Amino acid sequence: MVNKIITEKDFWTCTGGNVPAPLQSVQQSTKTKDGKNYITIVDTATSSYIDFGCNKLMLIMAIVAAVIAVAVVATGGAALIAVGAIAGAAGAAAGAVVGGLICGQIAKMARVWLGSKDNMIVQGKPAITSGNEMKCMLFGDKISHAPDIKNWWQAISLAGANYVGGILEGMMAGAAVGMGGAFISGGRAAFVEGGTPALSRAALELLKNMPKNFGVNAVESFGKFGLTLRGVMGAQNTAATYGTTGTATVGDFAAGTVAMETGAYDSFNNIKEGKGTWQDFVGMAMMVAPVGKGKRDLESEISKKADDAEGKKAEDEATKKAFNQEVDAPKEVAEFEAFEGEPLIQSDLIPEGTRRNSAGRLIDSKTGKFVDEPNSLSNTKKIAYKRNMSERKKALLRDANDPNSGLSDDARKYIKDNNGNKVPDKKYNKDYKGSDDYAVHHEEPLYTEKSLEGKKTLDKSDKMKTIPKQDHIDTHSYCGNTYHKFGPHQNHK
How far is CA 80 from CA 152, 170, 178, 200, 278, in A? Predict the structure, then answer.
């Protein structure tokens, strides 16, 4: 094959770069017939602002970011894998930016041509052909002619594919760091709890869970995030194909969407033949590691923190307002909220020598006889306690996922479809179509505590249970279990 005499219009690629780019000629007088400047042995800079866009720092910064995130994040277990993956992707993206700055025009000083066309002299310097290569002395990478890249559209497409690939590689490296962190923290906890036998049991449990992990990972790969990732990989493969060949089809996109499966197959063969890279080993390990579970755990933790923050904000606002306005006491006795939301009386002090019975009535400590309240209820301000919706949500989802909770299929589906934010009760939620209504029942009613802090201790998911609404009403009614054990609500007639 005859080598081509290189001009400023020809594209080059670097083995350590993301962006194909043409070289920039120092001399501007000697040109081809169509006006293109020849490239000579002194031309080592490109015409691109970020040059070849060095990719060396993408993986390094991905690993550093993942290590820091896994070391300092306030979580543990499988969620560390997701944390590491996210941090790795972010670190790789940052590395791409820094790499572009490092490469730049300054890098031209560290490049040396490994050959030239000595029998063609341009302005006193040997010309460059497509068969010549240039070496970057900083990292040892080689810069070669890319004959199939004809224009900037191809170059930009290939650069985009390379950057996405680098970020995905950073995500994989971060996930590997997260896996290591999860295994170390889990192993340490097991060893502290029961020594070597407990550590052995934990390792055995990990092996036993591999088939389950594989199944969960497969399901998650077709979930919302999984399908998004497949779409990104499809677009990446399409861009890479167009960048290197100048053409791309729907088939290239489709091939990218199954790259996880084809990549796993290739990794298995590479390892079998003794040619496996770290990407091959990590990819195979991720197939049976609790990656999908880690994603779910992290999502659950983030959702819980968001709900807690929202609930606390709403509770603080409600408390603040309650000090400045009167709140009417619940009026309907037969509804479950009436039993759970008794207002706190701000002036509800217990005079010396008195105490309150289980029903909240003030009595003389010695005689046991009822005594008058120190203030008229009609003249006191009341602070309404706001139910902890985050805890109620956890209780609903727990019971919806428990096959022995006694919930109907309609109720289970309604709770899951609404992510635990709605109770399956047609009176309060018109979109619920089930035949049976339910309520979230407190094992110990909130009205047994008079302070906000006291009510908070009872308003926990482990002290709640989703039961049929009529059962909830019955237990609070006269001679019901709750009525019998804790006494009537102050509004109960």
Answer: 40, 15, 5, 22, 20
Average pLDDT value over all residues in the chain: 84
Count the neighbouring beta carbons within 10 Å of the beta carbon of residue 317. 11
pLDDT in the model for residue 252: 96
* Listed residue (307, 321, 218, 204) closest to 261, CA to CA: 218
- Enumerate long-range contacts of 298-306, CB under 8 Å, 24 or more apart: 298/75, 298/79, 298/82, 298/83, 301/75, 301/79, 304/390, 304/394
CA 327 to chain centre: 41
Please give the Cα distance from 473 to 459 (Å, whole number).
Answer: 18
Name every residue whose Cβ is closer than 8 Å to that of residue 431 and which is 6 or more positions away in sequence. Answer: none
| % of the chain surpassing 90 pLDDT | 52
Q: What is the pLDDT of residue 337?
A: 42
SS3 string, 237-288, reads HHHHHHHHHCCCCHHHHHHHHCHHHHHHHHHHHHHHCCCCCHHHHHHHHHHH
Chain-centre distance for alpha carbon 392: 23
For residue 150, count other CB atoms closer than 10 A to its CB: 13
Neighbouring C-beta atoms of residue 19, cutoff 10 Å? 25
Supply the pTM of this predicted model. 0.62
Query: How would you class 140 by CB atoms within 10 Å of its CB: exposed for 0-12, middle for 13-18, buried for 19 or more?
Result: exposed
Please name which of 43, 12, 8, 9 lies closest in space to residue 131, comparing C-alpha atoms: 12
Q: 452, 319 in Cβ contact below 8 A?
A: yes
Look-up of token digits 């070849």: 52
